[in-house]
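wait is this the right file?? whatever heres the structure
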């Protein structure tokens, strides 16, 4: 059985690794030229996804790179009112540790035979058991797995569903080496996540493992073309920071100081999701995992679901080694139910974040009763 995985993200690599643990080979085709071709983003909160790392035989190595202190959280209102502070004891269990996405990806990559990932292979199309790549090359498969993210090209083989904008636009900025360059701001943010929630706006600052504080400014109830009308000059980082501060009228000066201290990395991100509860008629030769299957609001579930997808698809395939239709259908039944529940929860949290009293509602969410 030839298993072809399109996309070397966390889900695709988890699939390849768990298959490898069970003696089954797979090939991962990745459009990027190497593992270092681009940055992999910030920290991830890994909770349910730890089961996938156990199935992959990597849980001990994961604990070595995970940051338990990343579970710390501070939640404030724009006027500086502190609503919630959770500091993680040093001996606390690693229930929801933070880990650098690049470190987790490297852990998975390093656990695979060297020739498993074929870099520089941009998927173009597939038909009759053959993959076609943008450079004109091709490869055969018995099962094609689309692990190619939010704008998956493999998805079109199964469904016409496409991601839709959800009324949220994020501008990402950051402060490098924050302990040395801005120790006062480092102390304010703390060791984990620092949230300021206002009416239609939020600031999420997150301590990364490399000493950088990664900051996301979210603008809710905004249109897909909001960046074009926002007045943020993305080609002029200093002016962009000044404009972002203008868009936070009345916010405590400590918060605007975070923006003023950022470097010249200013990245716009438009947030989209797939329909909650998306399914498709099962095919024995094609399936999807991760964001390709169930892109959801970015509130901490996506990476966990992708890791689980990869591990559980691998287990289904090894449980039915000579019966692809049964293996794929069993995986999809479980995946649809599990990820639909996660997507509904994510959508509910997204609705809270977009509400006028987001800070108080989120405080109540984390402190029920």
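ok assuming it is, sequence goes like this
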């Amino acid at each position: 059985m030839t298993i072809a995985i399109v996309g070397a993200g966390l889900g695709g690599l988890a699939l390849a690794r768990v298959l490898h643990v069970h003696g089954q080979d797979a090939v991962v085709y990745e459009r990027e030229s190497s593992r270092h071709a681009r940055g992999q983003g910030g920290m991830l909160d890994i909770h349910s996804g730890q089961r996938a790392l156990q199935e992959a035989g990597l849980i001990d190595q994961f604990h070595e790179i995970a940051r338990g202190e990343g579970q710390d959280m501070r939640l404030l209102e724009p006027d500086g009112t502190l609503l919630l502070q959770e500091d993680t004891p040093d001996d606390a269990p690693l229930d929801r540790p933070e880990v650098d996405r690049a470190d987790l990806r490297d852990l998975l990559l390093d656990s695979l035979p060297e020739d498993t990932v074929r870099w520089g292979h941009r998927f173009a199309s597939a038909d009759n058991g053959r993959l076609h790549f943008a450079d004109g090359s091709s490869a055969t498969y018995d099962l094609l797995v689309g692990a190619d993210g939010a704008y998956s090209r493999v998805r079109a083989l199964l469904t016409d569903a496409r991601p839709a904008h959800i009324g949220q636009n994020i501008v990402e900025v950051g402060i490098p080496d924050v302990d040395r360059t801005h120790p006062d701001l480092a102390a304010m943010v703390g060791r984990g996540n620092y949230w300021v929630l206002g009416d239609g706006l939020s600031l999420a600052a997150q301590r990364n493992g490399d000493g950088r504080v990664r900051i996301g400014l979210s603008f809710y109830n905004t249109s897909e073309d909001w960046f074009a009308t926002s007045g943020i000059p993305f080609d002029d980082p200093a002016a962009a920071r000044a404009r972002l501060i203008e868009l936070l009228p009345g916010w405590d000066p400590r918060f605007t100081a975070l923006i003023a201290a950022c470097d010249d990395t200013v990245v716009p991100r438009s947030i989209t999701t797939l329909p909650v509860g998306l399914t498709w008629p099962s095919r024995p030769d094609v399936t999807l995992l991760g964001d390709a299957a169930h892109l959801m609001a970015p509130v901490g579930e996506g990476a966990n679901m992708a890791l689980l997808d990869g591990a559980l698809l691998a287990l289904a395939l090894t449980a039915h080694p000579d019966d692809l239709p049964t293996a794929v259908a069993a995986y999809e039944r479980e995946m649809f139910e599990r990820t639909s529940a996660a997507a509904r929860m994510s959508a509910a949290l997204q609705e809270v974040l977009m509400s006028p009293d987001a800070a108080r509602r989120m405080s109540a969410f984390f402190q029920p009763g």
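Residues 324-353 form the longest helix (30 residues). so i think its the right one actually
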